[in-house]
User: What shape does this take?
Amino acid sequence: MYFEVDGERVFAAGNIPAGHSGPVLLLVHGAAMDHSVWVYHTRYFTHTGHAVLAVDLPAHGRSEGAPLDSIEAQAAWLERCLDVLSISLAAVAGHSMGALAALELAACTGARVQRLALLGAAVPMAVSPQLLEEAAADSELARDMMMLWGHGSRAHLGGNSVAGINIIKSAMRLLEAAPAGLLFADLNACNSYQHGPESATRITAATRLICGTQDKMTPLRAARDLAASIPTCAIDVIADCGHILMSEQPEQTHRHLVAALL
Amino acid sequence: MLRAAAQGCRGHLPSRRLFGSAIGVNFVDPAILSPAYRRGFFFNRAALPCRLQRRESTLSGPKYPGFDTLSLHAGHQPDSATGSRTVPIYQSVAFVFNDHDEAASRFNIARSGYVYSRIANPTVAALEERLAMLEDGVGAVATASGMAAIHLALVTLASSGSHIVASRALYGGTHNLLTYTLPRFGISTTFVDPRDPEAFAAAVRPETVLMFTETVANPGGEVADIPALADAAHAAGVPLMVDATLSTPYLLQPLRMGADIVIHSLTKFIGGHGATLGGVVIDGGRFDWMQAPSRFPTLCAPYAGFHDLNFAEEFGPTAYIIRARREGLRDFGAALSAMSASQLLQGVETLSLRMDKHVSNAQTVAEYLEAHAAVERVAYPGLVSHPDHELAARLLPRGSGAVFSFEVCGGREAGRKLIESLELISHLANVGDAKSLVIHPASTTHSRMDDEALAEAGIAPGMVRLSIGLENVDDLIADLARALHRSQK
Assistant: This one.
């Protein structure tokens, strides 16, 4: 579905059924990605009768607008989405950069976010200077670094549970299709996010961190630190899984996501 | 040991499972870098302890597994239940659901997992993923034959009223499909000069849904200028579909050169032993179907056959290949069997080794024939005399494959004598076998084409097609020498 925020067209996969009551599930993608990273989850929640929106952040996927240059701005934009759609209660899941935006949204809106799922999350989410430099140059190496270090070792030789799909190249195509400068803007937003530790302590939503044992971008140890700083937070660990949990281990991610959001 | 581990890591990500050494694991494992990981999780060399910086210095940058590694390993993890190193043959029609929710979700493409082997099977999926990775594609669907792959690839985009622009130098089976069969279903084709990208572009109509060519044409050996054709296709707003059967991903990877969809007959070099039929469609995932949604309604319009699913909108880069599987295999049903997939996987494992020998033998045989007094012409791009020699050298630096044709002096009758005189080289309708093969295209594979169409396709009445195998090349030349001698009597 399409709707407008700040005069710009926004795309979100999924829908809000007529007469729906209860929390709307809001799914937020990571750096230079889009709604399609949630395709199985969006379809599952939609076809089991839930209201779900996998939103494209501005300048991502099929949404218009310029990239939002900070996590705080992304959270504020997500809140405006809730306002525009008259969503009073949400259950929010975010992946990587999207997890930071979801965390900040939950910290700022209090009880409006009833449940929170953070996938591949850590605060701070520092990004190496080398990657930022390559991303600023919009280089192929930046995209390769994202893919090679973003996925766990298992994913590099395949054997995934979605028949015939090469998950690394599927994610790579999203990076390749992203407008120039978008990856850098997103990584810089992650790198510059300073409020995370403090925001984490203000979260009231029932929260679950979902992380992979082979995550090199937001390693398990950092995820555990984050979980410890969030009141009422549980942590779910997925074995043989890197940072791109939704495609690397779709079934386990599905189970944890259902437990977190419903 | 240190050196070995460092070399092992050079071409691969560090991995506990792959390399098992602390050296291989730790140099980018942020868990040991605390508190350095707070300064940057991502390959931050400055954050590495000195002893690990030294080991890490062998890396020149992140790299993907190489072609041979993927040929052997991609698409399969050792079986968790049995430890089977080889991909097991999952000889099962259907797969058990744990509960109602899982069943409904798998039917509705809402959760991963297997339902019914016509749509997906774990053995076949290993082959599909391996080939997708070898071709740099986002996904693949294997089919019961090469022709099934071409049909599936075409009709995933084309419906009644659609139009295709195709090279006129095509395998005879493809020519039959486009010329005689698809028009019965309202799908028409305009054939153009395979060497003229402008002719491809000029033939595009509003209802055109794709351009189609072969990397190295069968049997004339015309080499497609993939980058130029891709530019022409994209400028016209349509994808470029390429049959890469004769080049295989080892010799040429069309998706890396701008093509959008690749097809292989796995029956040929990829299977490699003349034992198993199969085909595959591989999606590059780069074509933006939504740029012209009205041209590609199968991907961009709600599909009632899946609760109004809009494939392009929901699946993004994998839209085409998901539709090919979930509609094409579901409804047309040309699925590959698990047994066949297992046999084809064995072929993939040795693809590069075999192709090097195929190409080497073909080059030697082609040069021998070109110098022979009883041969009028040899059409092999590896020869300087071939009009596409320079293009082949640029696009196919490892060689131009092992299928080519030649004309023996004396025309059709001399060609018949030659084929019937061969003893080692088998007279049959196939290419890409480990054994050398021969056939007369005008009376067999391309027999449905009239003389004019044969001439346009570059097929002379007396042309003989060879598929050069892996025998000792001296024995092949001896067989040909004997047959050429007899053909001139």
